[in-house]
Amino acid sequence: MAPRIQSQRVSNTLLPYLTSSSTSSSSFNTSSCSPSLSLARQFSATAAPQTKLRRQMFEWLNTDGVNYKHHVPGEMNYLAKGRRDADSAPSNRPFPNNRNFVSESVLSEELRNEVYVQVVEQKKSVRAVSVQFGIDMKRIAAVVRLVELERRQRSQGKPMAMPYARAVHEMVPVTPLAERPVFHEPINDLPAHPSTGAQIFYPTTESRSFTRIDAGRVFSAAPEFQDAQRAAYPHPSDLANVIFKKPRKIEWVGKGANYRQVLQPADVRIPHPQQVQMERDRIAFPQERRAVLDRHAERLAKQEKVEQTRRERAKKVHEDSINLVEPEGGRFDFRIKDAFFTNKTVGHDGRAPFAPGRRYGVPTNDRKRGVVKIPTFVKA
Amino acid sequence: MVVRIRLARFGNKHDPFYNIVVAQARSARGGKPLEVIGTYNPIPKRPVSLYNENVNTRPYKEVALDQARAKYWLGVGAQPSDPVWKLLNMAGLVAPKPTTYNKA
Predict the structure, then answer these.
(1) Contact criterion met (CB < 8 Å) for B52 and A338
(2) How many domains does chain B have?
(3) Helix, strand, coil % (nearest 5) of chain A?
(4) Which residue of A has its CA nearest to B21?
(5) Nearest-CB residue to A341 (from B17, B35, B51)
(6) Is the pLDDT at B94 greater than 90, yes or no?
(7) pLDDT at B49 (0 to 100)
(8) pLDDT of residue A379
(9) For this UniProt entry, what's an example GO CC term (chain A) (predicted)?
(10) How far apart are CA A341 and CA A80, in angstroms?
């Protein structure tokens, strides 16, 4: 039987009732609840001690709810829609009536350590590890940074918040490190490009093949491809190879502030364009699985090499442009960067908005009312 | 009149930022200079300590300088102010300023 609230005589009794078992509380109730009290209730203005919902709550707590009272260590303790069985797979929805609330899984300790080992110690490319475990490349980069930080803190003997980590891993689903990798998340997703938001009615001849390349050109108002250009890319993913090697091949259109790059097809912009090519190879040569995989590996290696040289070159350019001076006895270093104050960089009157340094004769609106002063976006 | 290479303060209270400018010596600090040849941010920046390689790096101050213009103005007799002299010395454009206390 559900326990009752003692309205007048005992105050703050709710807490011990919720934690104590039902039998002890009911015996306590019968002793304290006299018939004279129920007669007096006829003229009482206080609310009834027991509502229907409250009774149902205690019923549930004593039947189905018992399963949830103590959680199994290392497992989530989410409510299930009906009665929970030991065999049924745990749901990722902590609120069974809200289908839209889904807990996203996090990487397990072993998996994130494995990612770090493969990237840093075995020197595998981030791209390859991302495909192997089905983890987004940005997440791989974050894992590498954070594990590096963790190892440094361990070596310095700093305390780790292990109980916290353990608690979090029991609250959300965890992607384990398994023999056959369990994919953590979709890795080839693409955010919708703002210029594809426009609805454009574009008449084209039926005989003409209209691919994603053409659609991108229409969206960015670039001139149509000529037949010879179109013939070079029978499938939009063929363009990915070219653009990857020479990103400067992407055309620019428009004038002034509207000067922009031509929108590339999704085949080029996705994080792993080589996956599309492998899938096409698989469909074209279903019998030659070995050859298809070899070609894929070759493509990956080539891509990695190009990326590596590009990274090194960018790093060298950055280092060359900075002259680091360490004055004797000073606390700070000085980074002396080359800057060019010419007509082109500061404008004919020295007030161009893109000019380096602070400008003259232009009011700074940083304290004006109605001007947003906090950053409104972060560059990816 | 003397032409000087000096700092012109910008930024807000407690948030200084300087343009390195070439100006007539008697002109106002906030007046329009002959030319801007660089910037100097005196607030030290600390590299992100998330990476192992950045752990032992010291905080740094950022200077941007148009070396060609600085050389030109020094060549025609512009006189750097003391703080700018230090910066130009670090950039390797002028010898350190002779001091009396080092002679003794």
Answers:
(1) no
(2) 1
(3) 45, 5, 50
(4) A357
(5) B35
(6) yes
(7) 75
(8) 64
(9) mitochondrial small ribosomal subunit
(10) 67
Backbone angles phi, psi at B15, to 5 degrees: -140, 65
B15 contact residues in A (CB cutoff 8 A): none
Q: Show me where the domains of chain A are located.
A: 14-63, 106-175, 198-315, 321-360
Residues in chain A where the model's pLDDT stays below 50: 7-35
Under CATH, what is the fold of the domain A106-175? Arc Repressor Mutant, subunit A (1.10.10)
Average pLDDT in chain B: 90
> What is the per-residue burial (b if ≥16 Cβ within 10 Å, else e) of B92-102?
eebeeeeeeee
Which is nearest to A61 in space by CA: A47, A73, A79? A79
Q: A212 exposed, middle or buried (CB, 10 Å; 0-12, 13-18, 19+)?
A: middle
- The CATH number of whichever domain residue B41 belongs to comes to 3.30.1320.10
More confident position, A20 or B64: B64
- pLDDT digits 0-9 by tens, B11-29: 889 999 999 999 999 999 9
Q: What is the pTM of this model?
A: 0.73
